[in-house]
Design brief:
By secondary structure, the chain is an alpha/beta fold. It is built from 16 helices and 29 strands. A hairpin with a 2-residue loop joins strand 6 and strand 7. The longest helix is centred in the last third of the chain and has 17 residues.
Length: about 550
C-alpha cells in the first residue's frame, strides 16, 4: 500500500486552534473505540426497531476498514459512500477513516448523473452501498451509473446492520485480519460531500474532523447539553447538518441518536415519544410537518429540551407554536456547508432574537461585512453587506475546482457566504437577501440556473426561468416560467418525465409551471427574475388563501 499526502488545514491556523482548545487530537474513530471499551453495551444508535451498541459500532467499523484495506488502497484514496441513513453509514465513515482513506458522501437519493459526476470529480474507484436500497439492487445501481459513463473497480456491499456482505468486482482480494490501520488525523481531509453549485452539477466540499469537533463545542454550549441527552437526527449523514447532529456531537457525549432511513412525521413523533428524545435536529420544513402531524394525533413530547433547525428561514409563528407545544427552545446556526457557522442562538437567548434573527456573531469566526460587488470591507457604521469569515469552523474549500474556490474565497483568503446580512451594534445577525440564485426547498439548496438548463432541453421550450414559489411547509418550491416554441404545448408532467429520463435528482423537479407569452426583461435585456418572484409570491398567496 502506498501513501499520498492528504489535504490538511493550514499549519499556522491549526496551531492557533489547537492552542486555544478549539481543535484536538481525537477522531470519531478513536472516540468510538474508547466508548466500546468503557461502555460497550451503551446505545449509540436506535434505528429500524434495533438498538446498536458502541461495541457493535466499533467492531463493524473495524471489519469495514479491513475490507477496504484488503484492496491495498493508497492512503488518502477516495471511497464513495451512498447508503441510506442509519447506523451503517456511520460505521462506514469510521471504517474509511481507520483505513486512512477519504469518504465521498453521496446522498442516498442522488440521481444517477449526480453519482457519476461525483465519482468522476473525486476519482473514487471504490463504491460502498447497501445490497439494495429504495427498491434497486446494488448491481442495478452500478449498471445505471455505468450508463452515465462512469464505473468503479470495486463495489463493497454493507448491510443495513453495518455488516460487510460482499466485495464485488475485486477478484483475488482477501481480507487480512492482521492488517494495520492508518487513521486519518483530525486536521486532515476525511470527507468530501456535495453542495449545490449556482450552475451545473454539485461541487465537493473538503472537511476535516476538527472543524466539526469545534462545531460540537458551539452546539453543546448553545444547547446546554448534559450527559443524559437523546438525539434525533432527521438530516442525512453526508451533509453538514447531519454530520454534527449524528456523527460528531452524540459520539463525543456518548449518548444515543435516533435515526430514520426516510423522514416521516408521524413515525418521527412516535419515536420522540417512545425514546424520550431531548434534542431534535431538523430543517424548518420537517418541524412544520411534525407540528401538523401532532395536531392530527397528539403525542407526549415533554422530553424535548431543544430543537436545532436551519438550512432555510425559520418561520416565527410556527417556531413559537413548536415551543409552546413542546416546551423546547428552538435554536439555530447560521452558516453553510463551507463556512460551518457564523452566528448562532442559544437556550439563553430571548425568544424575539432566537426566532426573528440568526443570533449573535461567533467572535472566533471573525465575521466581517463586504460590498457584494467589490468585496471591499464596508465602511464603519454600515451594518449591511455580504458576510465573510475566517475561523475554526470553516472547510478546506472545494475539491478539484479552482474556479469554484476563486468564487468561494476573497483574494486575501476569507470565505464568503451567498447572502446579504445585517449585523447590528449588539452583534446580532439577520439575513436580508441573497447574492446567489438558489431556491431553498426543505433546507436543500437548488440552483435555479441548473434547473433552467435541464428544462431548456425540452423541445417545446423556447425560454425558461426558475424561481422560488413560497410554500408554508417546504419554505420554497421550484416554479418554472416557460415561453413555448410556436405551436408547442407543455405540461408539468412533461417536464417531470424529461428530468426523470435525464436522471436529474428529484429535488430539482419543478412543482409549479406557468406558461407565459414572453418572459419579462430588465433594462439590460436579462430576464427580470424580481418580477417573476413577485408573481410567484402572489400566486402562492392566492393558492394558500383558497
Amino acid at each position: 500500500m502506498s501513501s499520498v499526502e492528504l489535504f490538511r488545514a493550514d499549519s499556522d491556523a491549526a496551531a492557533e486552534y489547537h492552542a486555544r482548545g478549539w481543535w484536538g487530537d481525537d477522531t470519531v474513530g478513536s472516540i468510538v473505540a474508547a466508548r466500546a471499551s468503557v461502555q460497550p453495551d451503551g446505545i449509540a444508535f436506535v434505528a429500524d426497531g434495533r438498538r446498536y451498541t458502541w461495541a457493535e459500532y466499533h467492531a463493524d467499523a473495524d471489519d469495514i476498514a479491513l475490507a477496504i484495506l484488503a484492496a491495498e488502497p493508497e492512503r488518502g484514496e477516495r471511497i464513495a459512500v451512498m447508503m441510506p441513513d442509519g447506523p451503517a453509514v456511520h460505521a462506514v465513515f469510521v471504517g474509511i477513516e481507520r483505513a486512512g482513506c477519504v469518504a465521498v458522501g453521496i446522498g442516498a437519493r442522488a440521481g444517477d448523473r449526480e453519482v457519476a459526476h461525483l465519482l468522476s470529480l473525486t476519482g473514487a474507484r471504490t463504491l460502498i452501498t447497501a445490497p439494495e436500497q429504495h427498491g434497486r439492487t446494488a448491481a442495478a445501481l452500478r449498471s445505471d451509473v455505468a450508463a452515465m459513463g462512469e464505473s468503479v473497480d470495486r463495489h463493497l456491499l454493507v448491510g443495513l446492520d453495518a455488516r460487510v456482505v460482499d466485495a464485488a468486482l475485486s477478484d483475488g482480494v482477501e481480507v487480512d485480519p492482521d492488517c494495520s490501520f492508518r487513521p486519518i488525523h483530525p486536521d486532515e481531509l476525511f470527507l468530501l460531500n456535495s453542495t449545490s453549485g449556482t450552475t451545473g452539477l454539485p461541487k465537493c466540499v473538503m472537511h476535516t474532523q476538527n472543524r466539526w469537533f469545534y462545531f460540537h463545542q458551539l452546539a453543546a454550549e448553545a444547547g446546554g447539553f448534559g450527559s443524559d441527552e437523546v438525539f434525533f437526527g432527521a438530516l442525512p449523514a453526508p451533509f453538514g447538518f447531519g454530520l454534527w447532529t449524528a456523527h460528531f456531537t452524540p459520539t463525543v457525549l456518548g449518548v444515543p441518536t435516533v435515526l430514520m432511513d426516510r423522514f416521516d412525521a408521524h413515525e418521527a413523533l412516535d419515536l420522540i415519544e417512545r425514546e424520550r428524545v431531548t434534542v431534535l435536529c431538523c430543517v424548518s420544513t420537517q418541524f412544520i410537518m411534525l407540528l401538523n402531524a401532532q395536531v392530527e394525533r397528539p403525542r407526549d413530547l415533554s422530553s424535548l429540551r431543544s430543537m436545532f433547525t436551519g438550512g432555510e428561514a425559520v418561520p416565527y409563528e410556527r417556531a413559537a407554536e413548536f415551543e409552546e407545544a413542546t416546551g423546547a427552545k428552538v435554536l439555530q446556526f447560521y452558516g453553510s456547508n463551507e463556512t460551518g457557522a457564523l452566528s448562532h442562538t442559544s437556550y439563553a437567548t430571548d425568544r424575539e432574537t432566537r426566532l426573528r434573527t440568526a443570533g449573535h456573531v461567533i467572535p472566533e469566526m471573525h465575521v466581517r461585512l463586504l460590498d457584494p460587488e467589490t468585496h471591499a470591507e464596508v465602511p464603519a457604521g454600515v451594518e449591511e453587506g455580504q458576510p465573510a469569515c475566517k475561523g475554526p469552523a470553516t472547510a478546506l474549500g472545494y475539491w478539484g475546482d479552482d474556479a469554484a474556490n476563486t468564487a468561494l474565497f476573497t483574494d486575501d483568503g476569507w470565505m464568503l457566504m451567498g447572502d446579504i446580512v445585517r449585523i447590528d451594534a449588539e452583534g446580532v445577525l439577520t439575513v436580508v437577501g441573497r447574492t446567489s440564485d438558489f431556491i431553498i426547498r426543505g433546507g436543500k439548496n437548488i440552483s435555479a440556473p441548473a434547473v433552467e438548463a435541464e428544462i431548456a432541453t425540452h423541445s417545446a421550450v423556447a425560454m425558461v426561468a426558475a424561481v422560488a414559489f413560497p410554500d408554508p411547509v417546504f419554505g420554497e418550491r421550484v416554479c418554472a416560467y416557460v415561453e413555448l416554441r410556436p405551436g408547442a404545448e407543455l405540461t408539468l408532467d412533461d417536464i417531470v418525465e424529461l428530468l426523470r429520463s435525464r436522471s436529474v435528482s428529484r429535488e430539482w423537479w419543478p412543482e409549479h409551471l406557468v406558461i407565459v407569452d414572453e418572459l419579462p426583461r430588465s433594462s439590460g435585456g436579462k430576464v427580470a427574475k424580481g418580477d417573476l418572484k413577485a408573481d410567484a409570491a402572489r400566486r402562492s398567496a392566492e393558492l394558500h388563501r383558497s
